[in-house]
Automatic annotation (TrEMBL):
<dbReference type="InterPro" id="IPR005238">
    <property type="entry name" value="ComB-like"/>
</dbReference>
<keyword id="KW-0378">Hydrolase</keyword>
<dbReference type="InterPro" id="IPR036702">
    <property type="entry name" value="ComB-like_sf"/>
</dbReference>
<protein>
    <recommendedName>
        <fullName>Probable 2-phosphosulfolactate phosphatase</fullName>
        <ecNumber>3.1.3.71</ecNumber>
    </recommendedName>
</protein>
<dbReference type="Pfam" id="PF04029">
    <property type="entry name" value="2-ph_phosp"/>
</dbReference>
<keyword id="KW-0460">Magnesium</keyword>
<comment type="similarity">
    <text>Belongs to the ComB family.</text>
</comment>
<dbReference type="GO" id="GO:0050545">
    <property type="term" value="F:sulfopyruvate decarboxylase activity"/>
</dbReference>
<dbReference type="GO" id="GO:0050532">
    <property type="term" value="F:2-phosphosulfolactate phosphatase activity"/>
</dbReference>
<dbReference type="GO" id="GO:0000287">
    <property type="term" value="F:magnesium ion binding"/>
</dbReference>
Length: 237
């Protein structure tokens, strides 16, 4: 079994893909589903999201860390920790939703992973993979994000505890980072994007995202006739 970590989204994916955007899209996605959201629609652009506004739907997303004009909510896991029972959350973010679209082009099974659901996501991936698990880091504006690579290391470490894998260099790098930094919050606060969010006054989101395996919810890409064009449908698994 191969274990691959792409430090930025690229290439093709033949089997199981775990998409990571710790700060904050995949952490927020997990939180919405934990709090009752019926589904998440991750859109290709803000305009697609705005075109999907309807009763029972919530538009959530950001650019530059701040809410998109015309959206109901930003991209905050703290904000997502409220009752969304029966609602569809339509998301578009700077990095995470785009990474999911890249993975969905070729991945056989696509999940969203974060530190908060790291172990549950790893178990789900291991149960389904037959050839390869690819951990895809969203990064920030086309640059590698330390927080995503750290989470890839956490997931890789847990996968290795469940069985043997052939590692690529990305997975080795992620494991090295994880093993050099035991405290997830220190890792997130030490990242460039973590520091940027704290300057915006979003320290609570960074702290929330550092929670290790606080959730067993794994967002699963689930295509269907009800999925709008330009969107990916994820439900809780």
């Amino acid at each position: 079994m191969r274990l691959r970590a792409d430090l930025l989204p690229h290439g093709t994916y033949s089997d199981v893909v775990l998409v990571i955007d710790v700060l904050r899209a995949t952490t927020t996605a997990v939180t919405y589903l934990e709090h009752g959201a019926e589904a998440l629609w991750l859109t290709a652009s803000p305009d697609v999201a705005l075109g999907l506004r309807a009763p029972g739907r919530v538009l959530a997303g950001e650019r530059g860390g701040l809410p998109i004009p015309g959206f109901d909510l930003g991209n905050s896991p703290v904000q997502a920790a409220q009752n969304f029972t029966g609602r569809v959350v339509v998301m578009n973010t700077s990095n995470g939703t785009g990474a999911a679209h890249v993975a969905a082009q070729t991945g056989k099974h696509v999940f969203l992973a974060a530190l908060t659901n790291a172990h549950a996501a790893a178990r789900r991936a291991r149960a389904l993979a037959t050839e390869e698990i690819a951990v895809v880091c969203a990064g920030t504006d086309g640059h590698v994000g330390l927080e995503d690579v750290y989470a890839a290391g956490v997931i890789s470490e847990y996968l290795l505890a469940m069985g043997e894998f052939t590692l690529d260099d990305g997975a080795r790098l992620a494991l090295t980072l994880r093993r050099s930094q035991a405290n997830p919050l220190d890792a997130l606060r030490g990242s460039g994007h973590g520091q940027y969010l704290e300057r915006l006054g979003l320290e609570a989101d960074v702290q929330y995202a550092a929670g290790l395996s606080t959730s067993t919810v794994v967002p699963v890409l689930t295509p269907g006739l009800e999925t709008p064009e330009g969107a990916l449908r994820f439900v809780g698994g």
